[in-house]
Amino acid sequence: MAFQPIVDVSEARIIMYEALVRGPQGESAWSILSRVTDDLLYRFDQACRVRAIELASRLGMQQDLSINFLPNAVYEPEACIQATLEVCDRVAWPTSRIVFEITETERVNDRRHLHRIIESYRAKGFKTALDDFGNGFANLDMLTDLRPDHLKVDRDLVMGCNKDLRRQALIRAVKGLGDELGMLLVAEGVETRGEAIWLASVGITRQQGFYYARPAVESLSENLGPMLANLKEAAEAYKSPRDAS
């Protein structure tokens, strides 16, 4: 597993880490996921959850932990969550500090089943997030009957948003949607100072991306220095607005 920080510019601190699958030689998540067959999907999903929580605990993570999950691997929410509850109990990790991200890599054909998963997880104290909103299968219709706690804005919308009026209009609309439906927004794929500051200026202060830090394998961060410097600069610009270009 690798961990990438999610920051809050308004508070100038790391608020969460996302756990990301990596291969034994650091291979990408896609290179691993693409080799998981249907008959192994459930076991793989369960193993990733357990490994992420165990490793986060061993590394002394104090922030919330965000874990991707594959909805089609969950055949029965109450049964499938047992391994997660057991590892949380074993390492003393509060369920309230786990966010399950609904990944957009697969289409969910049974929306009612996904609704049951989210409500079942919420009843156990977990939070949920809709990942990659605005791309792939994570589209507007998902929110007609799903009520995630977090909405993660996809990199395709974030890219160059500080200079692109169309992206700015779309992001403002998503921000309004999140506020109206009571969802916290996280901007994914933030790679430049300009993007970071513009997003913060419209109220999207929760951010994740290479501008702050790349995912670090088996570690919370390979080098916190540059990340903290960028976070401090973004926070100062947020508190004292100026040209973000």
UniProtKB/TrEMBL annotation:
InterPro entries xref list: Cyclic-di-GMP_PDE-like (IPR050706), EAL_dom (IPR001633), EAL_sf (IPR035919)
What are the protein's GO molecular function terms?
cyclic-guanylate-specific phosphodiesterase activity
Limits of the EAL domain: 1-229
Q: What domain of life does the native source organism fall in?
A: Bacteria
Question: CDD domains, per this entry?
Answer: EAL
Which Pfam families does UniProt cross-reference here?
EAL
Q: Which PANTHER family match?
A: BLUE LIGHT- AND TEMPERATURE-REGULATED ANTIREPRESSOR BLUF, CYCLIC DI-GMP PHOSPHODIESTERASE PDEF
User: By what name is this protein known?
Assistant: EAL domain-containing protein (Putative c-di-GMP-specific phosphodiesterase class I)
- Organism in which the protein naturally occurs: Halomonas fontilapidosi
